Amino acid sequence: MSAPDPTVGELSEGRILAGILARVGPSHAAVGPGDDAAVLAAPGGRVVATVDTLVHGPDFRLAWSSAFDLGWKAAAVNLADVAAMGARPTALLVALAMPDDTRMSFVEGIADGLRAACDALAPGCAVEGGDLTVSDTLTLAVTALGALDADVSPVLRSGARPGDVVAVAGALGAAGRGLGLLFSRFTDADGSPVAVDHSALSAAERVDLAAQLRPEPPVALGADAGRHGATAMMDVSDGLVLDATRLADASGVSVALTSASLGADPASALTGGEDHALLATFGAAESLPAGFRVIGEVRARGEASVLVDDRPFTGRGGWDPYRDWDAGTG
Amino acid sequence: MSAPDPTVGELSEGRILAGILARVGPSHAAVGPGDDAAVLAAPGGRVVATVDTLVHGPDFRLAWSSAFDLGWKAAAVNLADVAAMGARPTALLVALAMPDDTRMSFVEGIADGLRAACDALAPGCAVEGGDLTVSDTLTLAVTALGALDADVSPVLRSGARPGDVVAVAGALGAAGRGLGLLFSRFTDADGSPVAVDHSALSAAERVDLAAQLRPEPPVALGADAGRHGATAMMDVSDGLVLDATRLADASGVSVALTSASLGADPASALTGGEDHALLATFGAAESLPAGFRVIGEVRARGEASVLVDDRPFTGRGGWDPYRDWDAGTG
């Protein structure tokens, strides 16, 4: 009798792969999974490519995230990076490194999350390749590829011009508040993560938690922004102020934000990480595609990269994975 | 006074990235590192894409591999997968997850190895994007992208036909022997890796060790094989017999190998892993491009996927990362 839920160490690589491919398919590629490499359509002779990694410990805790959550988030954060170039995601490649004692049901949950995120956020995009490895540390490195429409230039960080409006699509601050909830309410006396009790959360808190664990970046709006002539765009992953600083510095301008446009909790909106909202600049407010809202304006370069309500922003600017992560936190 | 060789935990992500980019450049891409995603040329509207991961423990040991070796090998194994489709590598994306106490000089060594492998094995290919993460386990996940010549179809595993010749380019068996050397000669009484004493090695052993630590797959020959009408091709990464079995099964044929064509150590050639040679089939021996040598023939499907000297191969077939890795080995 075979075990009802074997570990990956008990299965061959071929069996594990077959279990994953049965869940992430069908392929939309010229050559999908199963050969040495995938072969994908790259319309217009251009391809957009990005990679982002989720590592157990700094990027997620298994007490808080389900396998489905992990697969979803690993897909979503990469789809957002493709969208931030003004492109449509076309394919994911997934490098999954996991401990020998990982249950096959967990692997299947990751596969389900990857597929569900593609279906919900970027229909037509699918997992077209990957790699399985043994590791002491559960790690998902996802590469996303994308296509630009024929008449659209990639939207860079460096194209903002004085006089442009600054706009955003997607939630700001919720994911950071969700992370705060996890650390403040779902850790034990030693600071170790414990399972989330959803019944202990208000409706608003559940929204924040979902933004952290299963983010829904406005992927389709990236290509919309490109078609509407966005002058600059980027994914807000490390906090609005830190990412706006990067955009301002790359463009040689200053970005002036209005806190009144940032919702009920402007402090979280300014500094909370992992929003995966799209920050973009446009030549005129009337050219904004549906789904974007104005949050400020681009000015000629001044002393500060980012102003909030006309003052240089002096708070904590956002999240840096090397300086801010404390391995001892749990 | 700043530390002469800081750890990544002491540096900002921006500083680490700047240190890497100074070594892997220059970019050949329309949009290289520094934005949300890279934008790469994909001639003919097609792109080849693959990912492969090196994890500390199962895939390398720091006592045996230098940072340069790691960067080189992570690039080389992915370049080989692109070549095995009949394509030319155009770009790498590198997801590097590393402990907080990793020295910056080590990161620079990885960057140097990545670049040197690209320059030596696939000129014109460069690191065009990536991601940095904190992890307890040093992990390099490299995605390689490639281009197919305008008139060339991707070469799949499934195209071998009875009557084709079976050919190989690159060394077989050396990398496996090199791994054997490491485990037999450079471990302590507990089986833990110790530094390699090169002066204790014969010239032939040094060649084997180099094949393991710094492989030189015949990357340029992949596109050559595509142009010469290879009917099937794959990267030999898990041992010739195991990979030939995959090719035979995908093509619905049997592969008959001749041990006399496999050099002085056919046993290693048949089962040693990590060769990263190119195994290909061609319609006729006279169509072989330079660099390939005949090692057998394709036959109508029989009972066995692979025959060696007309007998079904009964030895250990090759390497499976999930069944063969013993985490307790060191």
Automatic annotation (TrEMBL), chains A, B:
Keywords: ATP-binding, Kinase, Magnesium, Metal-binding, Nucleotide-binding, Thiamine biosynthesis, Transferase. SUPFAM superfamilies: PurM C-terminal domain-like, PurM N-terminal domain-like. It holds the Pfam family AIRS. ATP binds at residues 130-131, 157, 237. Its EC number is 2.7.4.16. It catalyses: thiamine phosphate + ATP = thiamine diphosphate + ADP. Mg(2+) 3 binds at residues 36, 81, 235. Mg(2+) 1 binds at residues 52, 131. One of its GO terms (molecular function) is magnesium ion binding. Mg(2+) 5 binds at residue 238. HAMAP family: TMP_kinase. Belongs to the thiamine-monophosphate kinase family. This is Thiamine-monophosphate kinase. The gene is thiL.
